[in-house]
Amino acid sequence: MSRIITVAAAQLGPIQQAEPRSVAVARMVRLLERAHQRGVELIVFPELALTTFFPRHYHEDIAEADGWFETAMPSNETAPLFDAARRYGIGFHLGYAEIAHEANETGTLRKRRFNTSILVGPSGDVLLKYRKVHLPGHAEYDPKRVVQHLEKRYFEVGNLGFPVIRAPMGSQEGINMGMMICNDRRWPEAWRVLGLQSVELVALGYNTPSLNMDAAGFEAHHLRVFHSHLSIQAGCYQNACFAVATAKAGVEDGCELFGHSIIVNPQGEIIAMATSWDDELITADCDLDMCTLGRTTIFAFDKHRRPEAYGRITGQVGATAPSVWNEPAARR
Length: 332
Ligand code: CDV
What we know:
Blueprint: E1 4-11, H1 21-37, E2 42-44, H2 79-88, E3 91-103, E4 109-120, E5 126-131, H3 151-154, E6 164-169, E7 172-181, H4 188-195, E8 201-206, H5 221-239, E9 242-247, E10 249-252, E11 255-258, E12 262-264, E13 270-273, E14 280-287, H6 291-296, H7 301-304, H8 311-315
Parallel strand pairs: 1-2, 2-3, 7-8, 8-9
Antiparallel strand pairs: 1-14, 3-4, 4-5, 6-7, 9-12, 10-11, 12-13
Helix pairs in contact: 1-2, 4-5
């Protein structure tokens, strides 16, 4: 039986600060209806898809930002999305800000905040949850920046690792699926952890500004998109998987997000790409058997990986200085 699944990246245009969740959800339902007309079986919405990208806004008291978070999923406001997906038998990926009342590492129950995504099956069941590991930005207000990026203020580092689940989706009885959120895509470690669980399809949402505020606003425009695509294409090739990478795009609260959502195959080729800065649906038929070539030849991990040489990957965080070459004493 063929292992082809029709997938969609449902790019969202900007969601302004004043826009309620109900409007964002209605836009997503419209995209889902279009996806149904095109025979889509899995649709991927962006990171923090229900609101504006609020980490650009500073709240001195973190609790003041709680209005941007979800305490339940589904909720009254997101129920129409779950209902529509169930009605059409389409699975979906959704990114949102999550408040969870959970024990921390010391066992103390407390309110915790995460940048989260879920994978929902065609029956409406949550199949898998992921919490963003690589949080970019800063924790304190930075007066030097024109636009803040306060993910480190509002979110804890995700505590679920990079899980992969095998579950039915569309006409397929089992697909190995995992998730990443935005900045994670730039880290080969994240891709490899998914690859080591035989991931076949990665769902990935992002909100990436067109300007690099860390570099005082300068980095050549076209390179911003290039680096995003390069990371995703390399991740797919090196781990023999598909990715559906979906952006929020356009000018949101005065800040431009670059869009350029893509679907990538295990050869690292872009097979669909968004061209607008608006709500836009791009689709592709993904033949999951394409994952076999890479994982049985160049990237047959069981044959070729050398973990004994990779200790630094998990043993250290920052880079150390190399040892310095000394001219042999006889020549001095
Ligand atoms: N939301 C993000 O994680 N954005 C980062 C930006 C800040 C560089 C990204 O990697 O796209």
